Amino acid sequence: MAQEICRWGILGTAFIAKKNWKSIWNCDNATLVAVASRSEQRAAEYISENQAQAPFDPAPEAVGSYEALLARDDIDAVYIPLPTGIRKEWVIKAAEAGKHVMGEKPCGDTLADVQEILTACEANNVQYMDGVMFMHSDRLPAIRKTIDTGSIGDLRRITTQFSFFAPDDFKEGNIRVSSSLESMGCLGDLGWYNIRFTLFAMQYALPERVTGRLLTEFGRGDSPNPVPVEFSGEMFWPNGVSASFYCSFVTEHQQWAHVSGTKGYVRVDDFVLPYRGSDSGFDVASHSFEIQGCDFDMRNGSRHVPVPEFSNGRPGAQETKLFRNFSDLVISGTRDPFWPEVSLKTQQVLNACLESARNNSQPVEL
Q: Angle between the 111-123 and 338-358 helix axes, to the nearest 10 degrees?
């Protein structure tokens, strides 16, 4: 019996979609049928570029409008990497056309936007999921087991950083420094991952209050307003656990997370995109401090927990699992409510942090 296949379309020719083109290509339960752009010529050029490295047979068709792609009856699901400022319209149109939707993050500019998106998806019985790849890594269940089995004691503190240094051409032309296209700047682009990992560590319990601090703002020449390019936030839970995060376009590549407890901590140096290789593991540490007379010794109690998983571009990489898992849901005809729920929670925390930052870092209760 032939395996069922989820038939994909892509709305837009964004740079990140190149990675996900190959993710679909690596899936044994998916294929790419068509790519839409605002011009058929641009869609055809994009297809040609990607076919050279990851060729589908037959090649995806170039479509000259988003509406035309959504009208096709040979597409089950769409990936929408359009800018956040215009994405809500097309997610809703896709849902109303009966297409399952994977959208880029942040899911919307406001919490109300995301609620409207999820209402449309539910009303049309289609699956919604955001494109956070690390959620589908084999590493996450291993970290969950380490925390839950008491290896680091009782959870007390979570800290994360996700940043990269933006060059001049980024500042001059990238959509992430345009308030009309990506109004939350680094907070939406990078902070989404910080907040999602923190929620994961807390088993998706929302904090009771948050604070945010807008450290640096910037806008490209045509941006109506500046956007956050350096941001820090704090989250607090009623059980005494707290969390902090830092995201920015002004410090070089870092993507680390620490989950600290009463007996030790988990350290992940690459929680968003695993370093190149076949081990996406993490470290667990429980150091000891010993005093013997005049000798004060801090003893290193670190151990590495290996997780066999390729970092990128392979059938077993986390981005491939993202599309494979989504395609499985589409083929099965079932909707998993976890994915829209966790998107909504992430958006809620993100917007509350920004609200706090815009109000002199006053705490915002959720």
A: 160
Name the burial class of residue 313, with classes exposed (0-12), middle (13-18) and buried (19+) by CB atoms within 10 angstroms of its CB.
middle
Residues paired with 11 in a beta bridge: 36
d(C-alpha 162, C-alpha 272), whole Å: 8
Q: What CATH number is given to the structural domain containing 172? A: 3.30.360.10
Mark whether 185 and 77 lie in a shared domain. no
Residue 1 lies in a domain: no
Range of the domain at 156: 138-316+346-365
Mutual angle of helices 192-201 and 139-148, in 10-degree steps? 40
In this predicted model, what pLDDT tens digit does every residue of 121-175 receive, in sequence order?
999 999 999 999 999 999 999 999 999 999 999 999 999 999 999 999 999 999 9
Distance, in Å, from the CA atom of 83 to the CA atom of 169, rounded to the nearest integer, reads 18
In the structure encoding, which two tokens stand for residue 9, read together?
Answer: 């379309």
**Which domain CATH number covers 48?**
3.40.50.720
Phi-psi domain of 240 (left: phi exceeds 0; alpha: psi -120 through 50; beta: other): left
The answer to whether the Cα torsion of 126, 128, 134, 135 is positive or negative is negative
Residue 195 burial (CB < 10 Å; 0-12/13-18/19+)?
buried
Q: What is the pLDDT of residue 3?
A: 73
Give the C-alpha distances (Å, rounded to integers) separating 348 from 171, 228, 298.
Answer: 28, 17, 41
**Burial of residue 146, with CB atoms counted within 10 A of its CB: 0-12 exposed, 13-18 middle, 19 or more buried:** middle
3-state secondary structure 239-280: CCCEEEEEEECCCCCEEEEEEEECCCEEEECECCCCCCCCEC
Report yes or no: 135 and 322 within 8 Å, Cβ to Cβ.
yes
DSSP β-bridge partners for residue 128: 101
* pLDDT tens digits along 35-79: 999 999 999 999 999 999 999 999 999 999 999 999 999 999 999
Q: 1: how many CB neighbours lie within 10 A of its CB?
A: 3
Q: Phi first, then psi: give them for residue 85, nearest 5 degrees.
A: -60, -25
